[in-house]
């Protein structure tokens, strides 16, 4: 399976961490870290793919 690498500058990462309380749900504590972002993006992509597949399956062929 391919790996995807995303890099942020130190300044960008500082801004991401500073926005942790906005990026995480109210019931999630702590700062955003790489594992959190990876899990969040994986869940988002999974949802997008499932939605795409659902729409493709619902198209009538005639």
Task: Describe the secondary structure blueprint for this structure.
Blueprint: H1 10-18, H2 20-23, H3 34-57
How would you describe what is shown here?
The protein is mainly α. It has a domain at 29-62. Helices cover 60% and strands 0% of the residues. It is built from three helices and no strands. The radius of gyration is 17 Å and the shape is elongated. The model has no long low-confidence stretch (mean pLDDT 92).
Q: Main attributes?
A:
62 residues; mainly alpha; 3 helices; elongated
SSE order in H/E notation? HHH
Distance between the termini: 36 Å
What is the general shape? elongated
Count of β-strands: 0
Task: Indicate the low-confidence ranges by residue numbers.
Answer: none
Helix-strand makeup class: mainly alpha
- How much of the sequence lies in strands comes to under 5%
Question: Nearest-angstrom radius of gyration?
Answer: 17 Å
Number of helices: 3
Can you give the helix content as a percent range? 55-70%
């Amino acid at each position: 399976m391919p790996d995807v690498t995303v890099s942020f500058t130190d300044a960008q990462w500082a801004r991401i961490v500073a926005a942790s309380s906005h990026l995480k749900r109210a019931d999630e504590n702590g700062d955003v870290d790489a594992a959190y972002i990876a899990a969040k993006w994986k869940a988002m992509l999974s949802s997008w793919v499932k939605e795409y597949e659902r729409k493709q399956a619902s198209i009538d062929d005639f």
